[in-house]
Amino acid sequence: MQLLLNRTSPYARIARIVALEKGYADTLTLVWSDPWNDDAQLLQHNPVRRVPVLVTDDGQSIAESLLIALYLNRVGTGTDLLPSQRYADILHLSGLAQGLIDAAFTTMIMRKHHGKEIDDSILGQRRLQAIARTLPVLNEGYAAAPAEDLTLADIVVAVGLDYLAFRLPEVAWRQQYPALAALHARMLQRRSFADTVFS
Ligand SMILES: N[C@@H](CCC(=O)N[C@@H](CS)C(=O)NCC(=O)O)C(=O)O
């Protein structure tokens, strides 16, 4: 199985961490890809030209980080990241965290292309508001959630927080949201997180 990815994508990191947690550390081939240039191999597997893309041993390509996570959770080994007792809750938190990542990633990419003043545009403000509104909701979810086995939400939320720390360090989530700070610290101790740091 192959994973097309780059080192700074939060979406690719989610897919890679799930692959590691689901027993693919030795059998997954990492294919470093450049979605911002004409990367022929990436285009062959994903005409949308985005990472991550998982290519199964049968040659089927799967795009979209959360769909890759669903696939790996089904076919891999180890902890079930979507146990049925908490299925809706885990999808709820994962969806919110994916929205947080979308807002943070788009903020960063728009700044890169248009300068930081783009944050003052209507859409720029909407993205920053989305981040500010989503963090307390996630924090409440984690303050209430039992810290049991690893779930998909733990991975997506912690990657989102680590992406904020990497790209938008001015967002002070650690000080404001203790349940998220605790989750982040716990997740960073896992080998799957340590082996996939943003760089
Ligand atoms: N919804 C997608 C988002 C993937 C995505 O936006 N990937 C970025 C890298 S962080 C990318 O490849 N962007 C290139 C582009 O948008 O042209 C997912 O969850 O996998």
Index terms:
199 residues; alpha+beta; four-stranded mixed beta sheet; 9 helices; globular; binds glutathione
Account of the protein in words:
The structure is a single chain. By secondary structure, the protein is an alpha+beta fold. It contains nine helices and four strands; from the N terminus they run βαβαββααααααα. It has helices at 10-21, 40-45, 65-75, 87-114, 122-144, 152-167, 173-176, 178-188, 191-194, and strands at 2-5, 29-32, 53-55, 61-63. A four-stranded mixed β-sheet has the order 2-1-3-4, with helices on one face. β3 and β4 (61-63) form a beta hairpin. α5 packs across α8 (178-188) and α6 crosses α8. The chain is globular and about 45 Å long. The model has no long low-confidence stretch (mean pLDDT 96). The structure holds glutathione.
Strand order of the largest sheet: 2-1-3-4
Largest pleated sheet: 4 strands, mixed
Can you give the mean pLDDT? 96
Q: N-to-C terminal Cα separation, in Å?
A: 24 Å
- How many beta-strand elements? 4
Measured by DSSP, the beta-strand proportion falls in 5-15%
Helix count, per DSSP? 9
- Gross geometry: globular
